[in-house]
Design a protein that fits this description.
Elements: H1 2-13, H2 31-45, H3 49-57, H4 62-74, H5 85-95, H6 104-109, H7 119-139, H8 147-157, H9 162-168, H10 178-200
């Protein structure tokens, strides 16, 4: 109906367009953050998968656009009809702050707790390290068999908090899941927050 069409147009007009990516260091976001913004924008706009690569190319300027065009021209096997992933891969290869390793899993296993690092911060850093490892392996046409299992084992073995380590020893390592670890970390953070508030809030 006309009303439905009008509402759809209004909603789409309110969607904030992502910034252009130039690759000259002037961006206020990383290439990874820019990818997320563009994908959210296209999803809200209802851009079809076949048209997404054209949309992404239209939001590249300067060196970034040149790098992608040369990368695509140099690799005839790239198929953009299935989505813009090859474009984002080229951008990350050239403009990401992340160093892509030839031994990505070795780098992940070397991700140990920093001095005085809080357990949840270590958990976040481990997850970021796994994302990098998966991205590197994808470039090598490989993959991690069970990322959640690797994350769980790494965190429990190197948990930087003695209290949480005791909790994780209550049952065999193989019985813990990434969801279990995350839940325990959330509980730990809530307890610490409650304890802190109870100390700073004067009794009535």
């Amino acid at each position: 109906t006309y009303t439905t069409l009008f509402r759809s147009l209004v909603l789409k007009s309110d969607i904030r367009e992502p910034v252009y990516f130039r690759g000259d260091g002037s961006e206020k976001c990383t290439v990874h953050e820019w990818e997320d913004m563009v994908m959210v924008y296209m999803r809200k706009r209802g851009v079809s998968v076949m048209d997404q690569a054209v949309e992404v190319m239209g939001r590249l300027m300067g060196r970034a656009r040149d790098v992608v065009k040369v990368g695509i021209r140099s690799n005839p096997s790239i198929d953009l009809s299935k989505g813009p992933s090859p474009i984002f891969d080229i951008l990350k290869q050239h403009f990401s702050d992340t160093v892509f390793s030839c031994m990505p899993l070795a780098d992940f296993y070397a991700t140990l707790p920093l001095t005085d690092e809080q357990p949840f911060e270590y958990w976040l850093r481990l997850n970021r390290a796994m994302e990098v490892a998966e991205d590197c392996l994808k470039r090598q046409k490989k993959s991690v068999e069970d990322p959640s299992r690797e994350l769980t084992v790494m965190f429990i073995r190197h948990c930087p908090n003695a209290e949480l380590s005791l909790i994780f020893k209550c049952k065999p390592l193989q019985q813990w899941t990434a969801a279990d670890v995350h839940e325990r970390l959330d509980e730990y953070r809530r307890e610490r927050r409650y304890s802190h508030l109870s100390k700073v809030t004067p009794a009535i």
